[in-house]
Amino acid sequence: MRDVVEKSGLNRRRWLSGAFAVAGSAFVAACDSVTHNPVVQQALRMAHGLTYRAQRLILPREALAPEYAEHEISPDFKPNGSTNPMASDYVALRDGGFADYRLEVGGLVERPLSLSLAELRARPSRTQITKHDCVEGWTSIGKWTGAKLSAILEEAGLRPEAKYIVFYCYDALNQQEDGPRYYESIDLVDAFHPQTILAYDMNDQVLPVPHGAPLRLRVERQIGYKHAKYIRRIEAVESFDHIEGGNGGYWPDRGYQWYAGI
Ligand SMILES: Nc1nc2c(c(=O)[nH]1)N[C@H]1C(S)=C(S)[C@@H](COP(=O)(O)O)O[C@H]1N2
Ligand SMILES: [Mo]
């Protein structure tokens, strides 16, 4: 949480207070539903040294990202980064039509989960048409349907120490089987955001391999590289010091910001 405040910077603060002023009652409702969530309340209570002023900076992050109309969907949404993972465990799942896929949910949770795609599709879901914003400077609009991450985390039951959610992926960006695999992480404010979903459909079709089949994160208030594709496992952690380079993600380990809010 402290990181979030330090990295947010002055311009961002100004932008946020402006956004807060103009967003009106829809924003207040969205804000309320998340801040009344018991897990988020607990996270806010626990956050070490988090002052009232810092909370005021964080809470506007609950505003919804803009949503678009069907006719605005990009006909040519660009696949980026890994588009066809080569790891043998992934190739085996893909060749079996992902029938044997299980999403593992573990770490600092009361009830670890192992969910098939059918089980994920039976969980509370959300559909949204949003603009994806890549750090390389392009954007595309797509329609996403997926399981609400908040519902999955409530089902697993976060333990009080949990502060971040880590997403471990199947792909190694160098396309070698032994290369470091992609991973990303988000805090609990983003994890419980109403537009944060584990997407299994894109533009009303089953999520295609180039865009992260069978399951990818949509975390709409964050830039492109936070949207982990090819998710293998989710882990609730207290810190990511012990994971890979210790910066909470494949690109953050290579110098990109961990907090990349938009
Ligand atoms: N597992 C994994 N997730 C990833 C990437 C990746 O290479 N591997 N690339 C990221 C980047 S930089 C972007 S812009 C988006 C691209 O998503 P898309 O392929 O659906 O456009 O995925 C993000 N998530
Ligand atoms: Mo990106």
UniProtKB/TrEMBL annotation:
Pfam families: Oxidored_molyb (PF00174). Residues 99-238 form the Oxidoreductase molybdopterin-binding domain. InterPro entries: OxRdtase_Mopterin-bd_dom (IPR000572), OxRdtase_Mopterin-bd_sf (IPR036374), TAT_signal (IPR006311). It comes from the Bacteria. PANTHER family: BLL0505 PROTEIN, PROTEIN-METHIONINE-SULFOXIDE REDUCTASE. This is Molybdopterin-dependent oxidoreductase.
